[in-house]
Design a protein that fits this description.
The protein has helices spanning 15-20, 82-93, 131-143, 195-203, 223-226, 264-269, 273-316, 325-339, 348-358, 383-386, 389-401, and strands at residues 7-11, 32-38, 44-51, 60-65, 70-78, 104-110, 121-130, 148-153, 165-171, 174-180, 183-188, 208-212, 229-232, 367-373, 376-381, 404-408, 413-418. It is of the alpha+beta class.
């Protein structure tokens, strides 16, 4: 019978019970869980308890986390793109969570727009689960050989309330009730009617309680205390209910892999992807070889350029040692121009004349000192003008118009030098 299973629903035990039972307090392939096998006709054909590693085989496996381990709610949010929504989601639900939103994985489902709701606001169902809990459950399922296709809260395994009817599911002295489309609570059966369930019956004006699960009959004795008729449906779950669930396998937990992309392990196992991986490897080798060849070509050109510079410098200045050819050539050029009676752009007289023109737009008395050294004219300003950004921008702009560069330093000074030709 298990070979014909279309879906396998696995009810994972609550984290609290795993911690109380000792051990490492987390899911593993040996963790015992309740399961229900569903055929193509949406009928439960097999159910029971078994370790994850011994679960019946099915085409698709759905993990149902305990209601106490998954927070679900409906919120209103400003209409925005999916990328921005994922960034804003932790802030939208943070005040409702008992744990830190940074430690939780958040999933959502946007509901259809309502005519009475503004276009700038959208209603969405949100589910939150601790990231460690979800990760360990998926790892345990993978270790047990279960092909997990979906994960959600067990809340969605029973119908939402309709009219004066509410649904509950009971298993081994513990149960949960579904109070709306995306909300519910857990309760314990300990010799008297659960107070939370009685309050929900009163607030929702429930007249009839539909009880699911193998231990649904254990709720019948409390019908009088609850003030509602208890009907044992003798069914483990409602097979059609999980279709409206908020799926937890979103974002980095999507079925395709991290961020929805196939993992390297899946690619390696894929027959279609193996040839592609081989071509990728060959392409990488070609790319690395091409980059190295281009680097060798650039190094050869740089070496030839340096040799050409040395040859030209030594032919022009045979008695000069080759240290900094550019600076040495500029110095010799200034000397040759001076001998010929020509001025250089970085001569003191030229730079000083340029400085006089620049300072014409500066406040009177803003300059403290002028210093010329190494073909650079340094202007030292007084504290007030040196801190004025508007004055700095004005002086820089005027210097550029005259083919000069004015560079301000942190010590209230500015260096005036000619731009490179």
């Amino acid at each position: 019978m298990s070979a014909a299973l279309h879906r396998l629903l696995v009810f994972l035990p609550p984290q609290r019970s795993l911690k109380e039972a000792g051990g490492r307090g987390s899911f593993s392939a040996a963790s015992v869980a309740t399961y229900a096998g569903i055929d193509a006709a949406q009928q439960v054909t097999v159910a029971g308890d078994a370790p994850l590693s011994l679960m019946p085989k099915a085409a698709a496996v759905e993990l149902l986390f305990d209601v106490s381990d998954v927070f679900t709610a409906v919120i209103d949010a400003p209409r925005m793109s999916e990328g921005r929504l994922r960034l804003a989601l932790p802030g939208l639900v943070e005040d409702r969570l008992l744990s830190d939103a940074a430690d939780c994985h958040l999933a959502y489902a946007i509901e259809a727009p309502s005519p009475d709701r503004s276009d700038s606001v959208m209603r969405m169902a949100v589910a939150a689960i601790e990231r460690v809990t979800l990760t360990r459950a998926l790892d345990a399922a993978a270790e047990a050989g279960l092909a997990v296709r979906a994960a959600s809260s067990a809340l969605y395994s029973i119908p939402a309330p309709s009219g004066d009817t509410m649904s509950v599911r009971i298993d081994r002295g513990r149960g949960f009730a579904r109070t709306s489309e995306h909300s519910g609570f857990t309760f314990e059966l300990e010799g008297e009617a659960p107070a939370g369930l009685a309050l929900a019956v009163q607030q929702l004006q429930v007249k009839r309680i539909q009880a699911y699960g193998r231990y649904a009959a254990s709720l019948a004795p409390f019908a009088a205390q609850l003030g509602a008729e208890v009907v044992d449906l003798k069914r483990s779950l409602d097979a059609s209910s999980p279709s409206g669930a908020v799926g937890l396998l979103q974002g980095r937990y999507a079925a395709g892999g991290r961020l929805g992309m196939p993992t390297l392990a899946n690619l390696a196992k894929s027959r279609v992807a193996k040839p592609m991986l081989a071509w990728v490897a060959v392409s990488l080798l070609i790319l690395i070889g091409g980059v190295n060849a281009y680097r060798w070509k650039l190094e050869s050109e740089a070496s030839a350029l340096r040799e050409s510079m040395q040859t030209a410098f030594r032919s022009a200045f045979p008695t000069e040692s080759f240290v900094e050819p550019v600076m040495q050539a500029r110095r010799h050029l200034r000397e040759l121009r001076a001998r010929a009676g020509q001025t250089s752009p970085d001569d003191f007289s030229v730079l000083n004349a340029q400085a006089v023109q620049l300072l014409a737009s500066a406040p009177l008395g803003s300059l403290a000192a002028v210093e010329y050294r190494d073909a650079t004219l340094t202007l030292r300003f007084k504290p007030g003008p040196a801190a004025d950004p508007g004055l700095k921008n004005t002086l820089r702009a005027q210097a550029l118009q005259h083919g000069m560069s004015l560079r301000f330093d942190d010590d209230r000074s500015a260096r005036l030098i000619p731009n490179e030709p």
